[in-house]
Structure formats: C-alpha cells, structure tokens
Design a protein that fits this description.
About 30% of the residues lie in helices and about 15% in strands. By secondary structure, it is of the alpha+beta class. It has a domain at about 1-60. Strands 1-2-3-4 form a 4-stranded antiparallel sheet, with no helix packed on it. Strand 3 and strand 4 (about 50) form a beta hairpin. The longest helix is centred in the last third of the chain and has 20 residues, at about 80-100.
C-alpha cells in the first residue's frame, strides 16, 4: 500500500485496548498534536504544539448511525461505506499476524 510517506520516516507507535491508553499523539520536526481522549463516544479533546484544538463535541458513533439510517430511508450512499470497514479489518488482521509471527505483513493487496 502506498502511504505517500517518504522512505526513511520512522514512527514509534503504541496502542492498547486499555482505557488508560485513550491517546493519539504524533510528533514531527515542526510540531506535535495529541487527542486525549482520542476514542470516545462523547467527543474528543485535542492540543497541538501551538495550543488547543477547537473540536466539536459530538457523539461520532451516533452521527454515523444516524447517517446510515438516513441512507436506508432515502436509498442514498453512506459517507462511510462498508468497504472502508472491511479495509480496516484487513489492516487489523495484518497487525495481529505481524505481532504473532514477528514478520512484516504486506498491505499491497489493499491498494
């Protein structure tokens, strides 16, 4: 899968299903951002190296379910098609496979 990220870029990542790890943080040479909590039903909060992020405090899952219900009623396309969820599951399965085997798992088939 071509991520558009130049060769040689290094990322240090941590993830957990633990409630205390509800954080997403990225650092770069010109600044950083953090979402904490990052994965909440009741909204997210964020900061950057330049200050607070002004994020709408919405229930993201409720908005997605409402959109899906509207699509069913109006026979229109969803903003988040099932193919996106399937792609996400394939990525998660590749992560688990890599963790289990200790080997790199290609995502080229997701192209």
């Amino acid at each position: 899968m071509d991520t558009g990220i130049p060769h040689g870029v290094i990322a240090e990542c941590t993830t957990s299903y633990d409630e205390e790890m509800n954080v997403l943080r990225a650092e770069a040479s010109k600044g950083w951002f953090a979402l904490e909590p990052a994965y909440e039903y009741k909204g997210i909060k964020g900061k950057t190296s330049e200050g607070k992020m002004d994020l709408p405090q919405v229930n993201q899952q409720a908005l997605q379910m409402d959109d899906f219900a509207k699509c069913v009623l109006t026979k229109s396309k969803s903003k988040v098609p099932g193919e996106m969820g399937l792609r996400d599951l394939k990525i998660l399965m590749a992560i688990y496979e890599s963790a289990r085997t200790g080997k790199k798992v290609s995502l080229a088939h997701l192209g």
